[in-house]
């Protein structure tokens, strides 16, 4: 949506036409939300903008053929190293030589994902934040093998999207998640110890620290499955770090399929 809104031609790839249809509907809904304010006194111009942006988005279930015509491949699939590596290793054989590959991974090392390809110099990370149309930040990640030219292209692309990029090393969680995820899990631990209700902790961090959402609201928003995946991965690599220790409460909720907003229930219930 953001790339299409800034004049880029985008092919959105997913595993089924049904999911793609839902995704395009989601983009349309989100665009309408943005346009409502931006074109408040010119609704017709707003509708024209929505249609123009949607024309920049085509969809496909064939990642290989989509990559053949792409300058940039941005992957945002499931947080599973093997699945990401398989995808990129296949695309590496099909995409033109100049095509840059980037991952939107929340927590996996970019160099591990890139190792499945023969374009280590044209591989980096572009990490966006939810909700992407509103959040201004993009983390741009370079590995030790990413060329300066590739890194500069990713920085420039982020600016062309109207975002503010920051440069990150390929370290666990980059900048934001390395600080945000341990903070959220510390809040959950505080609650597990009986030292504060979810509601009070959320209110405290909103009104006392100026955060737009409290840690429980935010983890429901990000998804408890994603949070758990990030924590488990770091815990496996650095088991002595108490910041990465698992939370029983999160494990239980995830085991019950309560992932947060997207499943209708996490720490809180949603309609
Ligand atoms: N698409 C388009 N616009 C959206 C939107 C969406 N999905 N979600 C919200 N908006 C817009 C609304 O239209 C509204 O625009 P307006 O101010 O121009 O009218 C604006 O955002 C505010 O929305 P609301 O009034 O509905 O609600 P809030 O004022 O509470 O803002 C929020 C919602 C922007 C989500 C805010 O609560 C927020 O910033 N929360 C924190 C989000 C955050 O921390 N994200 C990072 C998560 S970590 C992550 O993503 C990394 C990953 O790797 C895990």
UniProtKB/TrEMBL annotation:
Binding sites annotated in the UniProt record for CoA: 30, 37, 106
Domain of life: Eukaryota
Residues of the site described as Important for catalytic activity: 127
A UniProt-annotated Pfam family: 3HCDH
Gene Ontology process terms (BP): cell differentiation; fatty acid beta-oxidation; spermatogenesis
Domain 3-hydroxyacyl-CoA dehydrogenase NAD binding: 2-171
InterPro entries xref list: 3-OHacyl-CoA_DH, 3-OHacyl-CoA_DH_CS, 3-OHacyl-CoA_DH_NAD-bd, 3HC_DH_C, 6-PGluconate_DH-like_C_sf, 6PGD_dom2, Mito_3-hydroxyacyl-CoA_DH, NAD(P)-bd_dom_sf
Class in the EC hierarchy, top level: oxidoreductase
Positions of the 3-hydroxyacyl-CoA dehydrogenase C-terminal domain: 173-270
Chief place where the protein resides: mitochondrion
EC number: 1.1.1.35
Localization per Swiss-Prot or TrEMBL: Mitochondrion matrix
Pathway assigned to this chain's UniProt record: Lipid metabolism; fatty acid beta-oxidation
Cellular component per GO, a single term: mitochondrial matrix
Gene Ontology MF: a single term: NAD+ binding
Catalytic activity: (3S)-hydroxyhexadecanoyl-CoA + NAD(+) = 3-oxohexadecanoyl-CoA + NADH + H(+); (3S)-3-hydroxybutanoyl-CoA + NAD(+) = acetoacetyl-CoA + NADH + H(+); a (3S)-3-hydroxyacyl-CoA + NAD(+) = a 3-oxoacyl-CoA + NADH + H(+); (3S)-hydroxydecanoyl-CoA + NAD(+) = 3-oxodecanoyl-CoA + NADH + H(+)
Keywords: Acetylation, Differentiation, Fatty acid metabolism, Hydroxylation, Lipid metabolism, Mitochondrion, NAD, Oxidoreductase, Spermatogenesis, Transit peptide
Described purpose of this protein according to its UniProt entry: Mitochondrial fatty acid beta-oxidation enzyme that catalyzes the third step of the beta-oxidation cycle for medium and short-chain 3-hydroxy fatty acyl-CoAs (C4 to C10). Plays a role in the control of insulin secretion by inhibiting the activation of glutamate dehydrogenase 1 (GLUD1), an enzyme that has an important role in regulating amino acid-induced insulin secretion. Plays a role in the maintenance of normal spermatogenesis through the reduction of fatty acid accumulation in the testes.
PANTHER family noted in UniProt: HYDROXYACYL-COENZYME A DEHYDROGENASE, MITOCHONDRIAL, PTHR43561
Annotated family: Belongs to the 3-hydroxyacyl-CoA dehydrogenase family.
Subunit and interaction comment: Homodimer. Interacts with GLUD1; this interaction inhibits the activation of glutamate dehydrogenase 1 (GLUD1).
Protein known as: Hydroxyacyl-coenzyme A dehydrogenase, mitochondrial
Organism: Scophthalmus maximus
């Amino acid at each position: 949506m953001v790339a299409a809104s800034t004049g880029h031609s985008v092919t959105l790839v997913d595993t089924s036409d049904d999911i793609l249809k839902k995704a395009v509907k989601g983009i349309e809904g989100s665009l309408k939300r943005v346009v409502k304010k931006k074109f408040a006194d010119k609704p017709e111009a707003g509708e024209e903008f929505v249609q123009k942006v949607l024309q920049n988005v085509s969809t496909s279930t064939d990642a290989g053929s989509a990559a053949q015509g792409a300058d940039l491949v941005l992957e945002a699939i499931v947080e599973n190293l093997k699945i990401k590596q398989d995808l990129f290793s296949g695309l590496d054989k099909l995409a033109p030589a100049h095509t840059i590959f980037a991952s939107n991974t929340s927590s996996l090392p970019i160099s591990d994902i890139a190792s499945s390809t023969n374009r280590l110099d044209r591989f980096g990370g572009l990490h966006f934040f939810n909700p992407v149309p509103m959040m201004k930040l993009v983390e741009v990640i370079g590995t030790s093998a990413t060329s300066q030219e590739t890194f500069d292209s990713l920085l420039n692309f982020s600016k062309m999207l109207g975002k503010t990029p920051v440069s990150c090393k390929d370290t666990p969680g980059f900048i934001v998640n390395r600080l945000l995820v341990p903070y959220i899990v510390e809040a959950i631990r505080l609650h597990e110890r009986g030292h504060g209700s979810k509601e009070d902790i959320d209110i405290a961090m909103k009104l006392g620290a100026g955060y737009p959402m409290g840690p429980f609201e935010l983890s429901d928003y990000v998804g408890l499955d994603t949070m758990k995946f990030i924590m488990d991965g770091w815990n496996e690599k650095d088991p002595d770090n108490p910041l990465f220790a698992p939370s029983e409460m999160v494990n239980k909720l995830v085991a019950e399929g309560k992932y947060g907003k997207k499943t209708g229930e996490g720490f809180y219930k949603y309609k």
